[in-house]
Design a protein that fits this description.
Elements: H1 3-16, H2 18-40, H3 47-52, H4 55-71, H5 78-85, H6 89-123, H7 130-158, H8 161-182, H9 191-195, H10 209-233
Helix pairs in contact: 1-6, 2-4, 2-6, 4-6, 4-7, 4-8, 6-7, 6-10, 7-8, 7-10
Amino acid sequence: MSFVPALHAEWIKIRTLRSLLGALAAVLVATVAFSALSAAGTDDADPLFSVFFGINFGQIAAIAFGTTAVASEFRGGALRLTLSAVPDRGRWFAAKTTAIALPALAVGLLTGFVTLLVGRAALGASAPGWAEGVRGAVGCGLHLTLMTLFAAGLAAVLRSAVATLSVLIPFLLIVSFVVGDLSGGAADFLPDRAGQVALHSTWDGTLGPWSGLAVTALWTASALVAGGWSVRRRDA
């Protein structure tokens, strides 16, 4: 099977699994809802991050989407059936990650711009300017997509949704919030913190908005390379 039919087959899997559609919806709802609460109840000196604060919760739904989409292949012999139709494992993994990335990017960008509009309405006169806000909305969409793919790559290595989420959720909720605040500039290079630099009006660290996203992209690329290697080398 060539790449395009393989991609179509993977897209059918995604749009027919309610848990995956629910995770995508949760990305939008969680990000917008928590951002609105943050923007309405804050006098933060960084209005841009007040608008996009909810991404801390939306990215958990994003990693759940990426994890579940890949880990479902390792239950009940599903991967063996998939590889009987697409024997080229590299082609299948490329189709799988593309089928994950496209809806993640679409929902991520939608989430970014809806969050921007809601946040600007909540902040009123103290809202960030449109140029800065659009940068934040695009950064939000890209960050959510990269975190989704990061989770997908790790799930291909660990072959378990429970194991992957057991690693990533504590990482996001403990390492980023606790260890990150104690370890100085090195913490800025963690995948979730680096990508969120684009959501700040000002940042004292060494990374800028786009270099921060580039760091997250490197983490994601590493996870996908490891995932691809695992799919090609290990038994189905």
